[in-house]
Amino acid sequence: MLKLSKLEVAYDGSTVIRDVSLTVEPGKVVCLMGRNGVGKSTIMKTIMGVLQPVNGTVSYSDEEVTKKNASYRARKGIGYVPQGREIFPQLTIYENLLLGLEARSNSEEKINEKIYEYFPVLKEMKDRRGGDLSGGQQQQLAIARALVAEPSCLLLDEPTEGIQPNIVSDIQEVIKDIKRSQVNTSILLVEQSFDFAKSVADYFYVMDKGRIVYEGEDLMEEKVSQYLSV
């Protein structure tokens, strides 16, 4: 279980996350929503250990990891697909995927064939450089690289942003399959698409100005639309 408790995060002395508490239960897909600039990506970076909170705690799998670095958290089972993908453009698809093995807790150095079932194009183009891929293909590669490590909790920061509809559909099916077949794997998804969020998530948090302003199992448009509109 991933749990944030009374989290406060600041940039250059300015507080951007205020008193945020959030829970992701094993096997659940939780969606974090809100306009651009309200702090969603900051929360994801704090969970991963890229940023350190001023106050509050981050706990995972019955251990407080607030002071642990990103590498430790990755080996603990947290996978992270950042906004902007951050693949290695000069490396091949296959080399990018191999890097995902570094976060695996066991010593087995083999890419699960399930990854290629999710994204067949990555096998077909495995010798092509990451920088030569389309935006949608790069997003597939970023997700696949995180999944190679077989995480027990996957953080997806706006995986559908700027992606063509057919690849959005592929990502949607991957999330649904993980939810269906990997019963102990949880996903925290940052998303702005109301329809996409409703199609995959079990629980919802909505942010505004660095705070959680709504949470629940049902995403009721009339209650949250004011926080999602541009």
UniProtKB/TrEMBL annotation:
Q: Which domain of life is it from?
A: Bacteria
What Pfam families has UniProt attached to this entry? ABC_tran
Which BP terms in the Gene Ontology apply to this protein?
Answer: L-amino acid transport
Alphabetical UniProt keywords: Amino-acid transport, ATP-binding, Nucleotide-binding, Transport
**Domain (ABC transporter): residue spans on this chain:** 2-228
What GO terms are given for molecular function? Answer: ATP binding; ATP hydrolysis activity; branched-chain amino acid transmembrane transporter activity
Cross-referenced InterPro entries: AAA+_ATPase, ABC_transporter-like_ATP-bd, ABC_transptr_urea_ATP-bd_UrtE, BCAA_Transport_ATP-bd_LivF, P-loop_NTPase
Q: Which family does it belong to?
A: Belongs to the ABC transporter superfamily.
The name on file for this protein is: Urea ABC transporter ATP-binding subunit UrtE
